[in-house]
Design a protein that fits this description.
Blueprint: E1 4-5, E2 12-15, H1 22-28, E3 37-41, E4 43-46, E5 49-52, E6 56-59, E7 69-78, E8 84-97, E9 102-115, H2 116-119, E10 130-133, E11 136-139
Antiparallel strand pairs: 1-4, 2-3, 3-7, 4-5, 6-7, 7-8, 8-9, 9-11, 10-11
């Protein structure tokens, strides 16, 4: 995976047995094992795109969905073999604010884990930011998806 660039900053060591949803992450990595070391980091570059904790990604939704699905990166894990997993929280878009050209969103308890291969299959590879205006959360797209 020569398109994965790790930060030169500090990496924290964790075990999947200590992580919520660790068994899901283990199976996504091909039964990695709950007691092998994993490293968490604040950001990573994949194919020249930098992904950071708290970035917003456009997820894959149902064709019947009126609004896009949004995922907020909660944690980034990297294995010793340079495989990368993103743990993301879902945001549900409630409406499109035409004045702000942004989707009003509310968070949910749904969690998704993405591998780099799944990340490359998202509708848009570019991370977005969550903005708050008058205590309302908004996400605006950079381009049509």
């Amino acid at each position: 995976m020569d398109y994965l660039h790790l930060p030169s900053a500090h990496l924290d060591t964790v075990f999947l047995s200590e992580v919520e949803g660790g068994s899901n992450i283990s199976s996504l990595l091909g039964n990695y094992g709950l007691f092998r070391e994993l490293f968490s980091c604040e950001y990573v570059s994949v194919a020249s795109v930098c992904y950071r904790v708290n970035d917003i990604l456009v997820g894959v939704g149902n064709e019947s969905d009126l609004h896009p699905v949004f995922l907020q990166v909660q944690t980034i894990y990297v294995t010793d073999s340079r495989e990368c997993i993103f743990v993301c929280k879902h945001f549900h878009a409630t409406l499109l604010d035409h004045h702000l050209q942004a989707y009003e969103v509310v968070d949910s308890d749904d969690i998704t884990t993405l591998s780099i291969q799944q990340l490359q299959q998202l509708p848009s590879p570019w991370p977005l930011k969550l903005r708050v205006v008058n205590n309302v959360r908004y996400i605006s797209l950079r381009h049509k998806v």
